[in-house]
Amino acid sequence: MKANNHVPVYVTIFSELRDRIVNGSLGPGEMLPSENELCAKYRASRETIRKGLKQLEQAGLIYSSPRRGYFVNTPQHNKFTLSFSQDIGNGEVRFKDIRIIRPTAEIQEALNIPSNRKVIAFYRGNYKGERQIGLEIKYVPYDRGLPTIEDEINFAVFPEAADAKATSFSYYTELNIQAVTASGEILSMLDCSPEDPLLLLKRTYITQSGEHIGYSKQYLIPPYGELHGVSGYVQKNTH
Amino acid sequence: MKANNHVPVYVTIFSELRDRIVNGSLGPGEMLPSENELCAKYRASRETIRKGLKQLEQAGLIYSSPRRGYFVNTPQHNKFTLSFSQDIGNGEVRFKDIRIIRPTAEIQEALNIPSNRKVIAFYRGNYKGERQIGLEIKYVPYDRGLPTIEDEINFAVFPEAADAKATSFSYYTELNIQAVTASGEILSMLDCSPEDPLLLLKRTYITQSGEHIGYSKQYLIPPYGELHGVSGYVQKNTH
DNA sequence: AAGTGGTCTAGACCACGTT
DNA sequence: ACGTGGTCTAGACCACTTT
Q1: Is residue A238 part of a domain?
Q2: Which residues, if any, are the signal sequence (chains A, B) (predicted)?
Q3: In chain B, N or C terminus with fewer CB closer than 10 Å?
């Protein structure tokens, strides 16, 4: 049976079950009707029903337990999808300094390297107009022939800005968020006072083969240095 | 053609294409072979091929453009899936105080209420053993007959701890992360100094109908108050 | 005109949980 | 023994893009 306005059948199934879960008439832990029952109810083939159920599963609303049935999930509100505020993500970046240093214990651990392996440190400032809103230091192992500084910059240090075709999905990022104050050299490179609380984002760049190709510390000054996220099932308008 | 060790064909398709994308032999923006070509290559039916491609799409590696083809995505590293550290998520929570207050401008805006609408404020401490690692204040509109304080606590203030069957997916959470220092009353309820930088998590609880049912401010003390996240495509072992 | 992805069907076999 | 979800097939029609 076709739905009315060119709405695919599986979307109808998804929507109706989603509504029942969202409004509570299907509560967490409850079992959904079996695929065959839904086939009968919607007069659709099993694959079509499964398509709708798959969407619910991917939205995090249900899970399937093979040979038992589908069940409503218990909502998770301690996991968030986080994105950077526009100011940081789209703001201006200015080069500040570049150094070759001995790794601190922190950097050794983050990059998984011995103490005698030197590291290149890149200093960049985040700006919004003339106002500095952050400072980012990226550390990259200094090694393997070192093609040229330029190549290192393009492909290892700032992969997000480099030729996307070359970097691809070859790495992912681990993120750690802390609140800190700045001191010493860091403070002098930031436009703030010693008592100002800052967000510190530590990121480790890891290839799919497990190699740690970079480590960065980014200091963000309030009120620009804010992060935003959402958790749970956010209602989306049909795109 | 069946795969070797009971590995579904669509998983094989997913894995092989994923590897080609991850190792760069299929770069961002490149078009994948068409479904029909993949059908021929893997000697599988079109729906099976589509299943594998769907997985790649949901992993964020590719996207499909109807009537044109499938294309490799450009990786996004400014979106993170974030979760709380174990200490916070699994730590102990102790009740501290409960008050009925006039909403500040901040709370009015967060809860979307007028200034004459009173608010219940719940104060809770996060502990790890005897060490306090955080303070959370939840604000809930004081209204609609007020069933009993207990009900408010169970179903509006601490839904994550209440009967899951009653709360369901009826709300989602918006999160904001800042770095701050504590002062005045907040400071006195926290086990830290005025100059200690703290993480401040502001959360707004929103029902699917758009109603703002709660607002909370959680202060976290380093080094326990840390957040962790990942971005990009993280290799997972087949569970 | 040929090719593409989007939707859908009506079957099939399997492994396993429940009764 | 029966029901369940997991996998898979070989078709079909559609709307649209590309050539």
Answers
A1: no
A2: none
A3: C
Residues B125 and B189 in one domain: yes
Q: Which residues neighbour strand D (beta carbon < 7 Å)?
A: A 32, 34-37, 46-47, 50, 64-70; B 1-3, 8-11, 43-48, 51, 67-68
Q: Give the containing element (helix H, strand E) for A10.
A: helix A9-22
Task: Check CB contact of B8 with chain A, cutoff 8 Å.
Answer: no
Between residues 130 and 189 of chain A, which touch chain B (CB distance below 8 Å)?
A: 160, 164-181
Domain end point (choices B23, B49, B72): B72
Is the model's pLDDT at B129 over the cut of 50?
yes
How crowded is residue B25: how many other Cβ atoms within 10 Å of its Cβ? 10
* CA separation for the pair A175, A161 (Å, rounded): 19
Q: Does residue B235 fall inside a structural domain?
A: no
Q: Same structural domain for residues A95 and A183? A: yes
* Domain end position, chosen among A47, A72, A97: A72
Interface test with A, best of B26, B167, B168 (most A CBs within 10 A): B168
Task: Identify the sign of the CA torsion B23, B28, B31, B36.
Answer: positive
pLDDT higher than threshold 80 for residue A116: yes
Assess if residue B237 is contained within a domain.
no
CATH at residue B199: 3.40.1410.10
CB A221 within 8 A of CB A196: yes
* Cβ <8 Å between A226 and B172: no
Structural domain count of chain A: 2
**What sections of A66-124 are H helices per DSSP?**
86-89, 105-111
Nearest CA in chain B to A24: B168
pLDDT digits 0-9 by tens, B188-236: 999 889 989 999 999 998 877 788 888 999 999 988 777 888 777 665 4
Residue A67 tokens read as 């040979």
B115 and B188 inside one domain: yes
Exposure b/e, B77-115, CB count within 10 A at least 16 = b: bebbbbbbbebbeebeeeeeeeeeeebeeebbebbebee
pLDDT over threshold 70, residue A155: no
How far is the C-alpha of A124 from the C-alpha of B99, rounded, in Å? 46
Domain that holds residue A142: 82-228
Contacts of residue A83, defined as CB under 8 A and 6 or more positions apart, other chains included, come to A89, A227, A228, A229, B78, B79, B80
For residue A77, being part of any structural domain is answered with: no
